[in-house]
Queue: 2 jobs
Job 1
Amino acid sequence: MMLLIECPYCGPRAEIEFRYGGESHIQRPGPHTEVSDAEWADYLYLRKNTKGEHRERWLHASGCRRWFNVARETVTHEVLAVYKMTDPCPLPDDTGAPVGDPATAPGSSVGGAS
Amino acid sequence: MTRRYSALSLLREGVNGQRGWEPAWRSPEPKARYDAIVIGGGGHGLATAYYLAKNHGITNVALVERGWIGGGNTGRNTTVIRSNYFFPASAAFYDFSVELYEGLSKELNYNIMFSQRGMWTLAHDRHGLEMARRSANAMLLNGVDAEFHDGPSVRTRIPGLNPDPRFPILGGIKQPRGGTARHDAVAWGYARAASALGVDIIQNCEVLDFVIEGGRVRGVETSLGAMRSDCVGMAVAGHSSVIAAKAGLRLPVSSYALQAFVSEPVKPCLDTVILSPATGTYLSQSDKGELVIGAGLDLYLSYAQRGNLPWMERAAAGVVELFPQFSRLRFLRQWAGIVDVVHDSTPILGLTAVDGLFINCGWGTGGFKSIPAGGWCLAHAMATGQSHPLARAFDIERFETGALIDEASASGIAH
């Protein structure tokens, strides 16, 4: 009935301390002069909305106020993995970002991906 | 056999020991080919099937439903019907839906118990008051009935409101034609009427995949076998992304759990519908006497059809803030439906990038009130291959052109 989320910085806390930030690993297309309306709409609005394992961003709004990633089952709500914004997902890649996704790698120059 | 429902047929069956009633709809074996297939046996899908037959004469129609009809959001909402929207396109569409609801019991020969007891939106601060005036003016300009009331006037019309609330009640808008209906009856009424016109209602039948040939839809693969048709409509609410993905489509939809509750039944004490955005309260009383309480969205993706505890607490706190005397009531039932939320809180209704595949989704928390118009317009799109004039602005292309209709901000309705 209620999520227990392990903040990578603060440890396990109740869901009311957190804010959900939507699908993770979305990479902003660019350069902007070459982005079509369709690509831009895809980036802004279209989502996987996965039934099953979903990789998503959470903010510890009433805690350390830091963002991080959660892999979560959207039917059972089970938290499968918690990992930092700069880290690849520790789970095998089936739905989320590839391991070593350039958009999420440390020192990435791509803006807006996390 | 007794087909038509009336006082006379009730009397006749009463005398005959109730032996002459026939099932309200047929449960036929699926055929291999249909002129049209509707996926989803909720209100929107059933209404679509009915209007395909009634308005367009297309009666060789299959309606396929994974579970049982009306078992999803149609059976999980707070049954409120209203058209208090801001933008002309939304107001025209939703008001058409209210109009259809007004004649629906007679049209379907099925009592949907539509009670136009009025719908209130309360304002608790100066800004809320300004929004209420703006909203009432917009509704009137759009030809929708609306009344603005100041604080004392609200209190005269809604007895029992907290005399000393933490959030003062400064005013409110009333839509007199708003109200509630019996949600199951809407599903059953449409199902019965559609079945009588020849629609095959096929329950416990899951759509596994689409048959797509040369970029156009040719049918569906289901758990009961393949069905061919060049015209397929989907009205599957929270599962829209899942079904659309089978046709290779991505949607601007997020699925969230929306909770509702009923209290134990009590004597009549609330004869209208109240929305108080500031306290997070959505409240009415059912004909059985239960207080029907709607909560806000659990704001993370969910396909779980059960809500979380923090929202349950917030919803209860809002009710008690408005009506302290209700604090002694106990919750009787709690449930959640999976709603299909889009960024501008405006539906997606019409054609898709796949020829012959039509879509009805994006209702968010406001699907029930839109059932008649949603079904009407999806049926129109499926029958004519063109968006209905009332739904033209609801095309999925608006996400590419940028012509969003941002009702989430404009009408201040948290849906």
Job 2
Amino acid sequence: MAESSRSLAGGRRATLASIAAGAVALGSGCARRLRTVTGWEPSSQVSLRIKAVPADADPYALRAARTVAGWFRAAGIDAGVTPVAREELLRQVLLNAEFDLFVARLPERFRSPDGLYSLLHSRFGEAPGWQNPFGYADLDVDEMLETQRRASDGRRQVVARIQRTVAETQPFTVLAFPDDIRTARTDRYRSWLVADLASPLGYLTVERAGADPSDRRDGSTPEARADEVLRLAVTDRRATENLNPLAAEFRGHGVLTGLLYDPLGYDTGTGTVEPWLAESWAFPEERGETRARVRLREDLVWHDGEPLTASDVAFTHALLADTSLGADRQEGEAGTEAGTEDPVPAPRFQGRNSLVADVRVLDETTVEFRFVECDPGVATRAFTVPVLPEHVWADRTGPASVGGIVVGGATEALVTSNIPPVGSGPLRFVRNTPRESLVLERFDGHFLDDDPSGGLPGRMAGGPAFDRLSVRVVGSDVTAVEMVADGDADVTGTAVGAATVPRIGRADDLDLLVDRSETPYLLGYNARRPPLTNPRFRNTLARLIDGSYLAGTVFEGYAQPAVSPLAGTDWLPSDLRWDGTNPVTPFIGSDGELDVRRARDAFRDAGYQYDEGALVEVN
Amino acid sequence: MGLLDVVAEVGAVVAGLHVLAAVLVVGPDRLRAAPRRVRANLSAVAPALAVLGIVLALNRVVRDAGVELSWIIGLNITGWIHAVEGEFIAVLQSVSLPALTAYFGFIYVFGYVFLLTFPLLAYLLHDEPRPLRVLLVTYVLNYALGLVCYVTFVAYGPRNFMPELVGSLLFTHWPQSQLLTAQVNVNTNVFPSLHASLSTTVALLAHRFRHVYPRWRPVAAVLAASIALSTMYLGIHWLTDVLAGVVLAAATVAAATRVAADGNRGGRGGTDSGTERLSRNTGRWR
């Protein structure tokens, strides 16, 4: 905004100047010269605003953004940071594309290279959600993203090439992979160190302290178990206000909605998908077409007692592809114009759902998936989306309204808070107090109760080790740690900052849990806005960022710098390994100190100019 | 130590301060006459009290909706505030000492609650209702105008905007206090500082009604200054917020004295304003 007002003022000044000059020029008969001179547009300083969540909500994002803004300013850019609340940031970035740059973490575990498909394919440039929020468009990358889906051999080379191109053209800069730091009490629950708390499954593997895992359900009456509550202190209040698995701005890792809703298959964390709601699936050999026959477990039920059947699965994939379920179009066909309304896809799960061509119900417990051209190994990713109940969501396909007035193009399914949620997961909803708390309880009809083995990791059989899960929202990570230290909570449900580590170390009875996370902090560029449209400009900006320095100072060592979002997987080619410095966009300077002269040269090489120390762009 | 413990602790300490101040500031004479005065004053200020009750209740409800609303229509001025005053708060905090942190932390929570509640009690025990009425009206105006600002502006405090320079001293020193402050404050609502405006208001009124409680004036002045300073020292508010709070306080005090004066002359019954004038004169003779 500041930029546009300045350029307006500049424009006005220029106009006045040209009128004054015009009087002279016309007088001397130099109208031609005037025309030539006014053809040169005025230029103004490049101005970039970085949006990030404030320190209360995230221990690192704002500090990282401010450090980056400092480097940008040193290079002559008018850079600043705007603190924005968490769901507001996602709303502005993911839904409205109202940003220059943003700092945020990728939301979900990102271990499969096919995750890049929805993150970077240009067909998602206009789609809301974590589908290409950068507006990045590179036809070569598009083609390679499609190729890697099909290729069973040679996939590794294609994925490596994608990563190299992305590292050069910089739709985003990977800032660091932070360690997820948490703390947990050991007096009531145990097995914290092996539980992956960034995944819903982690909470299912936690065990009661002093209990033999094999008989956790026996030997105690329901009354005695009634107070077995697992208490989480979190700094993210969004789940207390909204439990809609489709609402991109309210979901982070999706841990709590992941406990309420079940997918057909679960991500093992090692790149494979194993059956969950599904009993089994098979990919029959067929030429040119990938199909899968999925058989559901017997006697699945929703939390409200309705049976979960094959038709719910088919419905879910249709809903994800178009949350209006073509309602508008059918009306259109009846009328004059057919197909005038476009589908309204869900802002989450688009990448995975784009693998699915259609889903057919064969009988109560069997569905047949037909996929787009892709390898079965990739296709199973489509099984990890949550299955939604048709009898609840079928009524949410109409346009969203506020007080009866239809606003915008969203459907009710996208904007509903979905409270109370009806899922089929191991936990069901009990109550919520917006901004303060959320209580879930064990769902006794879940298949985990009856299925002691079934190919699931051993500790999960028999269901969760607690009867209730209570989530309490606190103001900051320090308070969350103190809640756990004081015995008012069992674990910090959200990751806390490195600055709390000494505090955790000093307290008795606390486990310090440090996990290398799989979701990096990104600096995302809005490639729809000049000069960020220019990949060379973005590449030069990336060279103003010292990843090693960020990991050492902002993250206090609890992070690994990286080039690619696939760092840490075996998909990373060796030439993209972090080797003390960034192998693709090395920092111009050393130890966090920018070499200003060389930075200016780099921008001049990229075709930009400096005016009295300010990097300028032609308006 | 949960929220209830924090509330109980604050309640106990503030109650103790009230007893101490009642003896020292209000004095035994007035305390003895308390039952009669309280009844008369309460009925005299009932309308103002009712309005304050409504505004506080509204504040509680509207605050949550207001946060949502301010993200839609509000202006995010955090960057501008920083551009205006720069790293002043960081400089202020560079002299931080454990003893200072403890003092300002105490002042921010306990001192503030005491400063706001004690004049209610003290003026309630006074011979005439006017100071109490003015006080109530200023509280109403502070909250009402504050709420308007909170919807109009989105602003994060320095501890949220430049965490590498400004520590969140209160919450690192006494994390549990955040359980309490989170009930009352939203971290996007720092402009203006209601801590600064309400305490300045109390101090200004202590000066205006110094003839009522001469001993209260210095106490209120020191507390108000400490509270304004504490909000900055603890990294919660910008200097800009505090200055805006002081301006808000001056405006509300000026407005409230006028409104309350009108209330005396106009709408209210003649006998009532007659007695008031009489008692005001008695007050002055003392």
